[in-house]
Amino acid sequence: MTDVTEQNSEGSLSRIVSSGLPRRDFLRFTLVAGLATPIGLGLAGCATGGGSTGSGAPTVAGAAKSATNPFGIDPKATVDVVIFKGGYSDQYAIDAGKTYDTTWTGSGLAKVTSTTKINTELQPRFVGGNPPDVIDNSGADSISFAGIQGQVEPLDDLLEAPAIGFPGKKIKDILIPGATDPGTFDGKLLQLNYFYTVYSLWYGAKLFKDNGFTPPTTWDETMALGEAAKAKGISLFVFGGQNAASYYHEFALSMAVRQGGVDILKKLENLDSDGYTQEPVMTAFQSIEKAVKAGYFLPGGSGMIHTQAQTQFVQGKALLYPSGSWLENEMKDITGPDFAMTSLQVPALAASPKLVKGFHGAAGEPFIVPKGKNPAGGKEFLRNMLSKEAASNTSKLVKAATIVTGTVPADGFGSTALASATKIQNDGLSEVYNWRYDSFYGMGKQVVTIWNTFLSGGMTSADLAKQLQGLSDKVKADPSVKKYTVS
After folding, report:
1. Element at 310 (helix H, strand E)
2. Residues 409-427, mean pLDDT to the nearest whole number
3. Mean per-residue pLDDT for 272-282?
4. CA 35 from chain center: how many Å?
5. pLDDT at position 46, please?
6. Which H or E element spans position 311?
7. Per-residue b/e over 242-278, b at no fewer than 16 CB within 10 Å?
8. pTM of the predicted model, to two decimals?
9. DSSP character for 181?
10. I need a labelling partner for 214 at 20 to 30 A (CA). Which of 131, 341, 371, 426 fits?
11. Alpha helix stretches (DSSP H) within 38-165
């Protein structure tokens, strides 16, 4: 993930998870104006045989299905894989390709390439009837899924396939609850989101220790920390206003939901006229406004992009930074070896928050298998990515969790970031929350602009709420925009 658009597309387009968790903590989406939203999975097999894509490109004939070859792949056929080279880079997929080659006879059968221009480079291949077999459809230049939804293979049979490295279990049995929600449409799994993102505050444990600072658990403690840091010439927060000021939008809503419970999200998701004037939301906005007025933000944020702001953070010029758990890997070439990046639950705005251990979490980085030459091989490639060995290797490599359970040790492979984020995840899964309205309706760029002005001191919290509500109202009033509702 390398910008705010990627954060939204890779993390916040999912609904609240509901698998086996207390119902009071979750919202359920319903279908409105023909827009599909995930309620549950309708499992269905998807056979692959000889033939063609609709435009004349020949497909791989395949072989008989079996326990070891659940999709009936041709073991000698090439699998064309294209990866978005963003915050997670591409080595994890290259390694999965090597595993695929080892599993199936032959050399170099998995052709893994990477790009940051997914839509630019691959949309013409869809038009030409020759899409790759697997696509990591992520990043600012991702392909609009609405435009290709009918051109991708359902992946429900992937969930029913034997899990590699987990004897006696199917893939659906070894995934984090809710992992498949973001990619389920009309009861069919069409996208597999591979990484699990924990959104939180981040800090450098060594910097805190050296200065005698204690990680805050409440907003009052956060403000006290800001004053103590200011006395030492250190800022409390930093922001990348050019493309990631909305990281603080996520931060504010996370605090509001933790304080007031997930019902806060219903009005926001439903585009209600009072979504942003709800008390916990306004309290969160007002709290951040106090930090702005107190001078706790590093100057110059309005002119920075996210990586510039994050550089200031890892260099110790600011104490706290809100982001997803891709942060460590994204900044690994700049962060000092003893920084000890650590995940911190967002602070409680007041006493007795409704969600004691709750956190904002979601599966992200969507993978799709187009209806192309070798969809069976594409599914088998994903099955290999979901193996115990590949998932563990991925987390060790990029210091981020995948959707596969039990593959990250308590020490996070030596990463304080991964260990601390995994602890927040494990402790708070019964109260996890998520939302998607701002990304779903394409509000991202406007939200960045509004928050950049606010964090720069150019508007009050009341103005912030009014402008954000205006975005919501505009979408709701547009009859050409298909809506979804939550209940």
Report:
1. helix 306-314
2. 95
3. 98
4. 21
5. 29
6. helix 306-314
7. bbbbbbbbbbbbbbbbbbbbbebbbbbbbbbeebbeb
8. 0.80
9. G
10. 426
11. 91-103, 118-127, 145-148, 156-159
